[in-house]
Amino acid sequence: MASRLRITGVILIIIGIVALGASGYTYMRTQESADSLQGFSEAQDVNLSYNDEGQLIDRGTVEGAEAIRDLLGNTWRWPIVEGELDPDDPLVDTATEYMFQMATIAYHTLTGTQDVVLTETVEWDGDGDGEVAADAPVYDGGEWDPATSGEDAVFNPGTYQVPVNERYWTQFNRMHPLDGPARSQTWSGTVHGLFAELGVGAVTASLAQVGLGIAAVVLLMGIGFLTAGVLLLWTAMGARKEEEPPAAA
Description:
Blueprint: H1 2-44, E1 49-50, E2 56-57, H2 62-75, H3 95-110, E3 113-118, E4 122-124, E5 138-139, E6 142-143, E7 153-155, E8 158-163, H4 179-186, H5 189-243
Helix pairs in contact: 1-5, 2-3, 3-5
């Protein structure tokens, strides 16, 4: 019995030591990632804006920031951590701050308007029947409603204002003479690049938090195994003494 307890205790101690080593390694690599992200954030030097009362603002207004928060929290369903939005540390270096900055870019992209210039007349077969209706409306520039992209129309040369209307890349009619160019102008390579960059920052920050959590759990497991192994060895020592035959008189 004592021998079995001793062997089990040694095994648990070995497992505990391995777990402690794994915890230390996980913490070290996670901290390296966090330090790298911090360095990147400081090099970028992007800061969120707050007013004198510590409220988030966008372009000088609290209402603008609230609209962005609504996009982030309700539309994108990102779990906003209020503790990561610190007016005393406005540098964008946490997951919530990275995502808020991404939502800021998205909000102004989605609510913007694009100027599209046509240099020649274009007849648009909106209903796809192979011809443009004789009574199709004729446009000479100005504001155009994207909701009419499925209707026949004639677009004369001029400058047209195309509202984005909260549409993402795939929600534009890329074949339309106005909506197609507006899509490329709205969701430009710069916007996509910023999205990718901020997304990497948000994911890295989130994974760093997960890594620290895993390191802590493994550390506790290692301590538990070590404690259990030591206790078993102590118990084995007591059991061995009880098993020893009494000394001859």
